[in-house]
Design brief:
Oligomer: single chain
Order of helices and strands: HHEEH
Helix content: 10-25%
Strand order of the largest sheet: 1-2
Number of strands: 2
Largest sheet: 2 strands, antiparallel
Structural class: alpha+beta
């Protein structure tokens, strides 16, 4: 800022709340049509970038693959530059398709799935 009249855009490192207007607009339309035809699935106009909580100017494009170098300038007092590289971790997710098929069969039969602890039946 150069003067009291300067009005720079807001900046920060905190996550953006899902209730803020710009992020909430990405969540899609939850109206009667959605409730009657899609519920409990996400609406057709849901934008998956809704799940990205970082401020827009801090989202990496393209998505990092790992081992990329980075440099943070003037982030901390006394440190003009912090340099490093990303760790290059890979995550894996798997699903149990058997459970999904079981739930679909129950839904088609008009029943609700039950996943109890087994000890309270």
């Amino acid at each position: 800022m150069q003067s009291l009249q300067d009005r720079p855009p807001p900046a920060g490192f905190a996550p953006v709340s899902p209730f803020w207007k710009d992020r909430a607009a990405l969540a899609g339309t939850y109206d009667d049509d959605w409730f009657n035809t899609r519920h409990p699935l996400l609406p057709h106009n849901f934008d998956y970038s809704f799940w990205q909580a970082a401020p827009r100017d801090q989202i990496a494009e393209p998505w990092p693959e790992g081992h990329e170098p980075f440099e943070l300038t003037n982030l901390l007092p006394g440190f003009e530059s912090l340099k490093g590289s990303l760790p290059g971790l890979a995550l894996q997710v798997s699903t149990d398709q058997c459970i999904i098929r079981y739930c679909k069969r129950l839904a088609e039969a008009g029943s609700e799935p039950s996943f109890g602890s087994g000890g309270d039946s």
